[in-house]
Amino acid sequence: MPQKTKIAIICDFPAWIANSELPQAKGHYAIWLTTLYNSFERISNFEIHWITLQKGITSTSRFKSKNQYFHIIPAVRKTIGLYTMYLSDRRKIKNEIKQIHPQLIHTWGTEYCYGLCGKDSNHKYWLHSVQGLLKAYMQRCRLSRFQRHHSFYEPRVLQRAPFLTTESPWAAERVKEISPRANPVIWEYAVEDIFFSMERHLSDEPSCLYCGSNSAIKNIDTLITAFSSSKLSHIKLYLAGPHPDSFKNLPPNIIPLGRQSRDSIANLMSQSWCLVHLSFADTGPTAVKEARVMRLPVIISDECGSQQHIIQGKSGFVIKPTDVNSLINHVLYITQSKEKALEMGYFDAEQIRQKLSPHTMVTQLINIYTSILKSDSNE
Question: What values do phi and psi take at 275, rounded to 5?
């Protein structure tokens, strides 16, 4: 039997999904990583090793799940890590890499220390995948002190990684601003299966949906301003993610729902007439991809990735992030009737569903791995 090629994927994987005995961390996680994990189960020519840091454990946990190997390492607090250059976490990950001895290292995200671990390895075949871009976000909005300080590490990764992927043309342009010599491959992260199987059942009254946090960069204030207008008073805006206590004196048609499960998000999308996402900066908002897979029209900011999935006036609209009048007019256009909302949602949807399927995601990644490992022969 031929020896499998070892791949070490170093990222913020939600380890409790692969092993229910591990504690579940609070907060957001990269949901596309679980889609990749499920897809890798059917891949036979690669030996996949996931390496991740997790709080709440005292010793490294190693186990196998769905034909993949997991290395879950105790993490120090992120604030301590930030101001010590994550030296403790990086050392532990480096030791784990030495034991695995992979042919290729794939790191994910510059918002934590995983990209730095790729730099530490000095591995010839190091692939880094972008999740967020703090430098670009800082140019467009005020970030938290932690994020501002952490952005110091971002160029160190993007300017050193020999191979890069981003999930959108917008993100690729921002990467080149930080690292002009970079030539990132656009590789999109897939949408979970539930968004492919859920049917549309529009609410009786017109409704729009926002999915995400209420951080300043997400620009919820523009949505609230628009939907507080008398022109949109008959249209409900559901805010999935922001807690109701975060707002005061909202009009009755704006309804904050708090944090929602993945199933709840899918149900909300099945009933909504359109999705609105006017972030000041976003490399590739997952909610926009999910909405298009579920055949929702989308109104999106022109400072976002994922706008490549919107055909202007056909499946949604791309507008300036603070253009309240444009948002109002486009919401009125989409919600003029159920037939219009469905027509726009279904436009070009089958091509989008194919592009964002788990099968496409894993197939393209395997091709990227193979191309990198053969790169010597192409020089």
Answer: -110, 140
